[in-house]
């Protein structure tokens, strides 16, 4: 279920897997944690056993006040490079076994040596153990939106979560305020310390950035709601065929951008994602190339796709054969730079693909020159 206002007590019914509600917003300071705590307090008054697994108030007094009266599971000390750092105590939460756990900042990267690398993996572990979880995240932390967020804000967000978390959530609550109100909250010192305000307004919190991020957040939740409605009604797409998107990659560092573009297309069309790398039998990959392809495979899998790697002397024929085998309906390919002589003799890869795949749509993505 996707919601904006209502508390759903039925969400707290424990089955084999716990239920997950995600509070999402366009940026820090919109009130995700505040809203999560408000809902938790209301559920506590109704008799629900609620604990705080991890809370980040960022010294915001109004948020801290909302947490008063809620039990906190003591954080776990993790030693890293002779420094003791605090992380969520997953085992402590499981031992306490509450009905509902509150976990802030889903995209956080845990200290090395923790039970899991990422906090969202901690949450998945709690859910698999039968506990219900409320969590928070900002829209810019979705994996498939990385390149789009860079284009909008000029900032590369390092901590990200797989899109599937949003898809698999039982509820997504969009916490929405206008960019004007968010900027006012920032200027009033309700989001960051005073010395960070001017820098934030000139960078991430620029008005045009907030407008675009707000649109992203609302559209993402709307798309999920439409998908959920389709699943509940049992209806198929208008033509009865599920779109299958094939992203073709190389060892070019821009290939990860192609994968994310393909994932966005899959999300919009409610289709399936495949990523293909074609290796030539007479060409050997360097160590760096191999490591990069492994990263691409992990990225593909985190976005719910299937990674394919085949060996063939002709990349175009390999793509065509794969497209036929997997019933591909659309292909995403990067714009390639070929010599004029090679173009004259063989034609471009795009031209050859069009000749081989007359009934498949091609998406030619312009890539920056590195």
Automatic annotation (TrEMBL):
InterPro entries: Histidine_kinase_KdpD (IPR052023), P-loop_NTPase (IPR027417), Rossmann-like_a/b/a_fold (IPR014729), Sig_transdc_His_kinase_KdpD_N (IPR003852), UspA (IPR006016)
A Pfam family annotated for this UniProt entry: KdpD
Residues in UspA domain copies: 243-357
GO cellular component terms given for this protein: cytoplasm; plasma membrane
UniProt GO MF annotations: phosphorelay sensor kinase activity
Residues in Signal transduction histidine kinase osmosensitive K+ channel sensor N-terminal domain copies: 17-224
Keywords: Kinase, Transferase, Two-component regulatory system
Keyword Plastid on entry: no
PANTHER family: SENSOR PROTEIN KDPD
Protein name: Potassium-transporting ATPase D chain
């Amino acid at each position: 279920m996707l919601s904006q206002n209502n508390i759903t007590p039925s969400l707290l019914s424990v089955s084999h897997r716990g239920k997950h509600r995600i509070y999402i917003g366009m940026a820090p300071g919109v009130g995700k944690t505040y809203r999560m705590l408000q809902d938790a307090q209301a559920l506590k008054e109704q008799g629900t056993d609620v604990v705080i697994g991890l809370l980040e108030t960022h010294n915001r007094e109004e948020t801290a006040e909302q947490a008063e009266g809620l039990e906190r599971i003591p954080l776990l000390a993790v030693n890293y490079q002779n420094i003791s750092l605090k992380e969520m105590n997953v085992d402590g939460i499981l031992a306490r076994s509450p009905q509902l756990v509150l976990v802030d900042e889903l995209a956080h990267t845990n200290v090395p040596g923790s039970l899991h690398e990422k906090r969202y993996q901690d949450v998945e572990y709690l859910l698999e153990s039968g506990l219900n979880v409320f969590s928070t995240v900002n829209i810019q932390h979705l994996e498939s939106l990385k390149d789009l967020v860079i284009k909008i804000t000029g900032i590369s967000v390092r901590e990200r979560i797989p899109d599937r978390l949003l898809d698999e959530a039982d509820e997504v609550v969009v916490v929405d305020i206008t960019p004007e109100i968010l900027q006012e909250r920032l200027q009033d010192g309700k989001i960051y310390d005073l010395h960070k305000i001017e820098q934030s307004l000139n960078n991430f919190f620029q008005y045009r950035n907030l407008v675009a991020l707000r649109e992203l957040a609302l559209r993402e939740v709307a798309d999920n709601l439409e998908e959920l409605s389709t699943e509940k009604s049992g209806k198929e797409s208008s033509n009865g065929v599920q779109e299958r998107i094939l992203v073709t990659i190389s060892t070019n560092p821009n290939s990860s951008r192609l994968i994310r573009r393909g994932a966005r297309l899959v999300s919009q069309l409610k289709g399936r994602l495949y990523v293909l790398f074609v290796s030539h039998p007479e060409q050997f990959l360097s160590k760096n190339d191999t490591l990069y392809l492994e990263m691409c495979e992990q990225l593909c899998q985190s976005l719910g796709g299937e990674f394919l790697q085949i060996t063939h002397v002709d990349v175009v024929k390999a793509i065509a054969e794969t497209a036929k085998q997997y019933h591909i309906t659309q292909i995403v390919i990067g714009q390639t730079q070929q010599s004029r002589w090679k173009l004259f003799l063989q034609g471009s890869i795009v031209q050859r693909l069009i000749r081989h795949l007359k009934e498949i749509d091609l998406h030619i993505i312009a890539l920056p020159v590195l």
